[in-house]
Design a protein that fits this description.
The N terminus is likely disordered. The chain contains eight helices and no strands. The chain is elongated. The termini are far apart. With 188 residues, the protein is mainly α.
């Protein structure tokens, strides 16, 4: 059996109504359009990852769609979908694969070399950017292009439309200001 290929959304809807006679529920579409943001907020409260929340909501809505003609009281749809969200999340949680094995010796992370603490590195990075932001705009642009964008002096001069000598002198003055910056003093 071959599967027909749809070229547009209207063809897909026509195909769906032929394959599944109950496939076109305009009331379901309007319900999803109206309630999706609220239901997504509920799904996000059940998962830590926003992408997982979207997947969870889609799965719950698919289950709701399949049962749409069996749901008698459409005023209680939010409760039905919330229960589907919770049941689906519980099933996912129970099925998750745990890759933990007991062992005789606990694995310890390798000690970091002295001065290679991620928090210290981030503090240094933040302090450096604050110091760079205090430079005059022209010097700041030259330092960023030279050292963060890794352009040569000639390329920096070309980008800014100045001479190479101007870049050299401005970068030299900027580095001097950075060396004297009191916030960067503890790092030296």
């Amino acid at each position: 059996m071959t599967t027909p290929v749809c070229t547009s959304a209207s063809d897909a809807a026509t195909l769906a109504t032929r394959v599944l006679p109950h496939a076109a529920y305009p009331s379901f579409s309007s319900y999803v359009r109206a309630r999706q943001p609220i239901l997504l907020r509920t799904a996000r409260s059940l998962t830590a990852n926003p992408s997982d929340a979207e997947d969870l909501l889609q799965t719950a809505l698919a289950k709701t769609y399949v049962a749409w003609d069996r749901i008698e009281d459409h005023r209680a749809l939010d409760g039905y979908v919330r229960r589907a969200l919770l049941n689906t999340r519980t099933s996912q949680w129970r099925k998750r694969k745990v890759d933990e094995f007991s062992c005789d010796e606990l694995p310890e992370p390798e000690p970091m070399p002295h001065g290679d603490d991620p928090a210290e590195r981030q503090a240094l990075h933040d302090a450096m950017w604050r110091a760079i932001m205090r430079l005059p705009a022209r010097q700041r642009a030259m330092v960023v292009l030279r050292y963060y964008e890794d352009l040569s002096e000639a390329q920096t001069a070309e980008v800014l439309g100045v001479s190479v000598g101007t870049v050299k002198s401005a970068v030299s003055r900027a580095l001097g200001k950075l060396r004297e910056d009191p916030e960067l003093e503890p790092i030296r």
